[in-house]
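User: Here's a chain of 128 residues. Predict its fold as tokens.
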Amino acid sequence: MTEVSTLDILRIIAAGLVLILGIIWVIVTVRRLKIRWSGNAGIGLGVTLIIYAIPLGWLCARTDPAPTLVFLALGFWALYRGIRRKRREVVAATRRRTGHCVNCGYDLTGNVTGTCPECGRPLQRVTA
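Assistant: Prediction complete.
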């Protein structure tokens, strides 16, 4: 069994503090700004977690890589979900602006019924 040095113990303590402060920072920021989980919020959280994993990886380099891997996994997951959500938001906004159904993309030019004939979803009109 290998002996743990004082520097390794300090790195573990520092990594734990960094982890706790990071979680507190994310929770406080989300609550204070009342962020709706949109594409931009997901992308920002993902990038923050990935960047946050770099110093955490340095602190845990000789002891335990698990916290770094957790931050990287959560960061890439949030980034992936944020990009998917942002793409859906852009597609919906484009469809709404061009007069298509937000749900299925059906062209609603001339439709006066208030629902999409293709999927039955109520229309969301663009207000100028």
